[in-house]
Amino acid sequence: ERPAFRTVRILVTGGSGLLGKAIEHVVTKQGGARDGEEWIFLSSKDANLTDLAQTRAIFEKHRPTHVIHLAAKVGGLYLHMKENLQFWRDNIRINDNVLHTAHEMNINRVVSCLSSCIFPDKTTYPIDETMIHNGPPHESNYGYSYAKRMIDVQNRGYRSQYGRKYTAVIPTNVFGPYDNFNKENGHVLSALINKTHTAKVEGSPLQVWGSGKPLRQFIYSLDIARLIIWVLREYEEVSPIILSVGEDDEISIKEAVEKIAETLEFKGEIVYDTTKSDGQIKKTASNAKLRSLLPDFEFTPFPQALKETCDWFLNNYDIARR
């Protein structure tokens, strides 16, 4: 057990994003913090993490004992297709600056966040944690995907060379309050919530990009937040862990669109624009490792999580990122 006088200071990069806000909600509003824990949430306004000097300065200022690294340069499918090099360079810089500064400051525990888009494009399903380097990722966002995969490589280096407990989580498709609801660059579910709301207000048809056929495992941000906190405290491996609902909970974009329309009471026409790219058709992930370690974890049912997200969007329409 830790001596009671040693404060645990947990620094969360990307603290103003979807997952950062979810963790903040869990620790401040749902009693997720433990006694003696101090939580610090950084946003891009506090420091530009692509800059090493700024990264060092913010770490010096807060002197964390633990880090949850969520910060990344992110965008929607179409922005990634245009700017793969920029996504690679920015994310490689951010990750190297955060991990190496943590190491230099003798921080022994860092949990970083990967993404399900890092999975090999050509693979067998379901994908598990041992398979993430088994082939190239989907070409649409290879820059971002390879940069994220390198966190796993770097974590293994810090473990083998210095004995650090640096690891990473791989969430599947996250959604929830505080997401980016931008119609072009937001996460798919949140972009669709915004599009559906606009179509309802304007009395116009709902235009969905792509065929609606791709399958996704959607997971509520507050569930992921609780799981990341568990990983920080309990998970001992360097190898990443997939945080996801089960394979049986995978749904198509079309099913998600219909559920959003029902939740927002949109009664108009839904049109699928098949001239637009679908991205990956599926990227089914296994949560067997998570289940073996945490068999009793209860995920928020999709309809309830979707309703809470839609309610948040409508109640915070003026401040929501869109």
From TrEMBL:
Pathway in which the depicted protein is active: Nucleotide-sugar biosynthesis; GDP-L-fucose biosynthesis via de novo pathway; GDP-L-fucose from GDP-alpha-D-mannose: step 2/2
Gene3D superfamilies from the UniProt entry: NAD(P)-binding Rossmann-like Domain, UDP-galactose 4-epimerase, domain 1
Enzyme class: oxidoreductase
Keywords: Isomerase, NADP, Oxidoreductase
Known EC number: 1.1.1.271
NAD-dependent epimerase/dehydratase domain span: 10-246
Similarity annotation: Belongs to the NAD(P)-dependent epimerase/dehydratase family. Fucose synthase subfamily.
Role, per record: Catalyzes the two-step NADP-dependent conversion of GDP-4-dehydro-6-deoxy-D-mannose to GDP-fucose, involving an epimerase and a reductase reaction.
Name used for this protein in its record: GDP-L-fucose synthase
Organism, as annotated: Denticeps clupeoides
